[in-house]
Amino acid sequence: MARSVLVTGGNRGIGLAIAQAFAAQGDRVAVTHRGSGAPDGLLGVKCDVTDAAQVAAAFQEVEAAHGPVEVLVSNAGITDDTLLLRMSEEQFTRVVDANLTGAYRVAQRAAKGMLRKRWGRMVFVSSVVGLSGSAGQVNYAASKAGLVGMARSIARELGSRHITANVVAPGFVSTDMTASLPEERKKEILGQVPLGRYAEPAEIAGVVTWLASDAAAYVTGAVIPVDGGLGMGH
Ligand code: NDP
């Protein structure tokens, strides 16, 4: 059944791969962007998830074009890495605002339509470091761990209405976010990944579309690693 899907940060990287995977299976797909416009075939809505008014306007636009959002993928995210002692409060709160509070803003808005429909799927894109921690990423790891508690609370609140909330925790994926890492750091990371390579964005997308499918109707509150084995044991 074709669904109305919204992917935040779906204009590039992992979000774009997710949006394209839903579109390929015939869903009506909208993506947020912050000015780049939308890739071909996808409905683009301008939205910075740190701005509640822009979130409200984006949902109105998507609903007018595609109907209420039935599948929400909260994927938008940023990093701003530095060690704890050097991290300013602004650096901490800015990352949490985009990655965690932004997810809350879109989840709350999406829940309204899902509750009316008594059906919905929410998928939150977290990270392996949300559970393992990562030196230099106190802000980012905290925001990504926070998504787990949030998704599991939503799973408990809305489960009786056939709404699931799950988390996907990627390891290292070839996108702009990882391209900027120093070569030394990349080598170091790959040495710890049992599969010995980065993921392609499409490999994250496959798990997200599965979570939104009927096959995953009984999966909620789960944290699914897609990390080549990097986070095993957490
Ligand atoms: P990119 O840096 O390639 O893309 C980030 C996306 O998020 C862009 O679409 C960007 O929009 C959007 N975005 C950032 N801030 C905001 C905001 N305030 N409001 C709306 N959109 C915003 O990242 P990836 O594709 O690599 O990452 C996607 C998600 O996956 C992130 O949540 C990231 O933390 C997570 N992740 C990534 C991993 C990796 O190895 N790449 C590993 C684990 C998790 P714009 O184009 O306007 O900047």
Description:
There is one protein chain. With about 230 residues, this protein is α/β, with parallel strands linked by helices. The chain is globular. The longest helix is centred in the middle third of the chain and has 29 residues. It has a seven-stranded parallel beta sheet, with helices on both faces. Helix 1 crosses helix 8 and helix 3 runs parallel beside helix 5. It has a single domain, classed as 3-Layer(aba) Sandwich (Rossmann fold), CATH 3.40.50.720. It is built from eight helices and seven strands. The model has no long low-confidence stretch (mean pLDDT about 95). It holds the Pfam family adh_short_C2. Belongs to the short-chain dehydrogenases/reductases (SDR) family.
Helix and strand arrangement:
Elements: E1 4-7, H1 13-24, E2 28-33, E3 43-46, H2 52-66, E4 71-74, H3 89-117, E5 120-125, H4 129-132, H5 138-158, E6 163-170, H6 176-179, H7 183-191, H8 201-211, E7 223-226
Parallel strand pairs: 1-2, 1-4, 2-3, 4-5, 5-6, 6-7
Helix pairs in contact: 1-8, 2-3, 3-5
Bound molecules: NADPH dihydro-nicotinamide-adenine-dinucleotide phosphate.
NADPH dihydro-nicotinamide-adenine-dinucleotide phosphate (NDP) binds next to helix 1, strand 2, helix 3 and helix 6.
GO biological process, one term: fatty acid elongation
Pfam families: adh_short_C2
Keywords: Oxidoreductase
